Amino acid sequence: MRYVIVILFAVVLTLSATTAFSYGRGTVDVEIISDRGGEYSVIPYKDFETGCTHIIKKYLEAKKGENYGIVIRNNMPERIGVVIVVDGRNIITGKKSFLKNNERMYIVEPYGYTRLKGWRTDEDTVHRFYFTDIRDSYAVRTFGDTSAMGVIAVAIFREKETPRILYERQLLKEKAPASPQSSEKGGLRRYKSDTAGTGFGDETYSPVIKVEFEPERIPYEKILIKYEWREILCKKGLLRCWPEERNRLWDEGEYAPYPPEYVHR
How is the chain split into domains, by residue range? Predict the structure, then answer.
């Protein structure tokens, strides 16, 4: 059985003008690209194998209000399918994702790359990703879902056979399910305000076509990036946030202390 998958048209990226951080083992890289160019702090967490899948976990310092993109670089001589999930929701369909091979995915050509800028709403349009608080996140506002908040996940699937391209363009008919009532009113009060999430931002032109592609049953690799605000990473001890130690022969501003039990006159 073949699956009909979405593929991006070729795009030109000027990566020298942005800040990128790479995750991967030399075959497929995932980069988080900042629109504003400022540096992110990245902290390795876990890197291990489970079954036939290589799993990489890292932390990323999010910057509130900043737009970002997800760049996939395929360093292999074959097409790959990538299921991309933000805050637990598939970025193409908006549905809750379990990183399975029957979900909608993007296709990346051999030795190719592509940049995913936002939540897809039709064949020509995405709405930009941006870091925000949990109440403003797309997952909470639309679905009331906090089950995988603050995680960018990419599952990489190799294909079973060479795909046959469908040259005609087709419309994406799927719509996101209606927003649950609890996410609009009192339900929002239970969410922690210091948790980072990804918002549903400005509309951007991003055309796609569909192809046939049959992924393998098990992902070749999973890359999971947990993004948090700096203060949270500091509290968890993942970033060194205390002041630097003073140099006793270089730094100034110290005064001589009083001796013990000194009596002021």
Answer: 3-235
Q: What is the amino acid identity at position 188?
A: L
Q: What is the 3-state secondary structure (H, E, C) of the chain?
A: CCEEEEEECCCCCCHHHCEEEEEECCCEEEEEEECCCCCCCEEEEEEEEECCEEEEEEEEECCCCCEEEEEEEECCCCCEEEEEEECCEECCCCCECCCCCCCCCEEECCCCEEEECEEEEECCEEEEEEEEEHHHCHHHHHHCCCCCCCEEEEEEEEECCCCCECCCCCCCCCCCCCCCHHHCCHHHHHCCCCCEEEEEEEEEECCEEEEEECECCCCCEEEEEEEECHHHHHHCCCCCCCCCCCCCCCCCCCCCCCCCCCCCC
Comparison of pLDDT for 31 and 253, the residue scoring more: 31
How many CB atoms neighbour CB 99 within 10 A? 19
C-alpha span between 192 and 223 (Å, rounded): 25
Q: How far apart are CA 78 and CA 16, in angstroms?
A: 26
Q: Hey, CA dihedral for 240, 241, 242, 243, is it positive or negative?
A: positive
How confident is the model at residue 18, as a pLDDT? Answer: 39
Number of residues in the chain: 265
Question: pLDDT per residue over 163-179, tens digit each?
Answer: 454 443 444 444 444 44
- pLDDT, mean over the chain: 80
List the one residue out of 127, 101, 97 whose CA is nearest residue 201. 127
Among the listed residues 263, 128, 259, 97, the one whose alpha carbon sits nearest the alpha carbon of residue 203:
128
Please provide residue 259's backbone torsions phi and psi, each rounded to the nearest 5 degrees: -70, 160
Give pTM, 2 decimals.
Answer: 0.75
Mean pLDDT of 7-17: 40
Whether 83 shows a pLDDT value over 70: the answer reads: yes
